[in-house]
Fold this protein.
Amino acid sequence: MTTNNHMDLEKALIEHYQTAWGNISHSLVWSKGPQKDLPKEFRVLSFSKDSTTSVLATCGLSFGSAENKIELFLYCPENILEENRLCEILTVTAHYHLTGGNLGVGHSVNWGEPIINGSLCNWGYLSWPYLEGESFGDVQLSSTKILWLVPITKQELEYKKKNGVDALEIVFEEQGLNYISFFRQSMV
């Protein structure tokens, strides 16, 4: 993909995000680790969705060479102090996708440690972003899909493996997943 195509896709992606979440609060780049293996334009954008919820979303992941063109986002509490840690989580998940993970809906990622210190959630689960409406996951002008990175516990991962993706999502819906709490207990 040429630089002009990247610029067009980046503009479409940012407009898509801003339609849902408002203006970009700021941009983050995790300067350690696998940054060199990511597209040079890759960064994490921060949005203030409402008075209690922020959204961190990748921008540029879909410029990479992976077969599945995706971008990722996660919800977090507004004004969370661990924002750099969440940028790291999105960056290492992006790296995994581009270096062989070829992630998509229903896949899980082992971060090897909690999303933030003290959390039971040390896995990420990729879901369709149904909270944002049916068409949110598709970006115009491209085949890029936007997926929701949901932090999950080891027990929830095992439940998903045993019972399937739909069963896990039903549990989350029926029990009212608090998707901005990284300190929640397992729901299974």
